[in-house]
Design a protein that fits this description.
The structure is a homodimer of 193-residue chains. Chain A has helices spanning 4-13, 18-24, 83-88, 109-118, 120-146, 149-159, 163-166, 169-176, 180-190; strands spanning 29-33, 38-40, 48-54, 56-62, 68-75, 78-80, 94-98, 102-108. Chain A is an alpha+beta fold and 193 residues long. Chain A binds chain B through residues 61, 63, 69, 71, 83-84, 87-88, 93, 116, 120, 123-124, 126-127, 130-135, 137-142, 144-146, 177, and chain B through 61, 63, 69, 71, 83-84, 87-88, 93, 116, 120, 123-124, 126-127, 130-135, 137-142, 144-146, 177. The first copy, chain A, binds a DNA duplex (30 and 30 nucleotides) through residues 148-149, 168-170, 178-185, 187-188.
DNA sequence: GGCATCCGTATACATAGGTAAAGAAATCAG
DNA sequence: CTGATTTCTTTACCTATGTATACGGATGCC
């Protein structure tokens, strides 16, 4: 089956009728993004929903001073894209960049969402996905506020054991909300263990 | 119409068929919570979904050391309840406390969610609600990480102009992620303006 | 009115983490 | 291999904010 990973991912959210899948999958087309390429850019309206088949991406926010904050690391398989912009119709404030060579399935969001009317199972998948996104965000909020950088680093290593060795440390520092300097101090301190 | 505010709130998310509303509203019962009362407690499974008709509540997280972090202020009308716990089935880690006398419509979540099967419009409302929750969380994450406490205070005052005068400042400090001491310093500094 | 409690503010000190700059190490291009 | 570039670490110094504590004003109870 083509787009096996996407089909499987949706199915784990909720059972998807074959008739629904027949309408969904033709919307998606495959594209490659080389390491360093941007999937979405800030300032534009998001119009596509993406599914990361292979690779690692980062979603980041860049403030007026040009400083970047790594909001999230996407590791395949998962949905990507400017979700908040898709939902609100406001210009996107998040950028997403390939940290490795990536394969992405991409679909225009308007016809995808239009399928919700005739495919309640697809809308259910979207509901569950949004709920999971919310839960993840809530958990991250508590981690940011309650844990210090050292504990957040420990959690990061547990959660993304493969990532640490494969991406630059300044990206990790940015995800943790500290400078590379501080991450280096933390690493030195915990090196004994 | 009874439960007018709830009906109106749902309708603003997406049109709700009369037949759907006829199944939804009997699930809800009204309850009063006096200032200081808890709506949900940590450590238990959330089983109810609530709708705040009147009043102000705070959602807070309490860590092992007993320190509290005010995650959110609910101002009627809005949904309340241990949303993450309802979704994941994991024990609730958030508490919600009435900051003023409150009126709440409460429904058991299991039969509410069961209506999604026969009422796609209700599932759509739930999807849109979850999406809005996610967008709000994403925005708050960026505020926490990108803004310093002084700017977050300025934002808080813009966003909840009535709240500042009506709740203790230590609750505001906790929402901002600083101590009352620090909020006091910030207030002194910006008093000139 | 008088007392107790709670809350906001102030002060002194401690600490996590930022900034800047430089050196060390690793990676990459030719 | 070699030089250039990028990344990681270290150091010195500085700032924001936490902790602990004390004080004073408000509020409420008797």
């Amino acid at each position: 089956m083509p787009m096996e990973a996407l089909h499987h991912f949706l199915h784990r959210l909720t059972p998807i009728a074959p008739a629904t899948w027949d309408k969904v999958h033709p919307l998606f087309t495959e594209a490659r993004f080389e390491k360093g390429a941007n999937y979405i850019r800030e300032g534009q309206l998001a119009r596509e929903i993406g599914f990361l088949e292979q690779g690692v991406m980062r979603a980041y926010y860049r403030n007026a001073a040009g400083q970047e904050y790594n909001k999230h690391f996407f590791t395949a398989p998962c949905f990507i894209g400017g979700y908040a912009s898709l939902i609100t119709g406001q210009p996107n404030v998040i950028q997403q960049e390939a940290l490795t060579d990536c394969t992405v399935l991409s679909a225009p969001y308007a016809p995808f969402r239009a399928l919700f009317d005739s495919c309640p199972d697809l809308e259910r998948a979207a509901r569950i996905l949004a709920e999971q996104f919310f839960v993840a965000k809530e958990q991250r909020e508590i981690e940011i506020v309650q844990l210090d950088a050292e504990e957040r680093y420990r959690l990061f290593r547990e959660r993304y054991p493969e990532l640490e060795a494969s991406i630059p440390q300044y990206h990790i520092a940015s995800y943790l909300g500290v400078t590379p300097t501080q991450l280096s101090r933390i690493r030195r301190k915990s090196a004994g263990r």
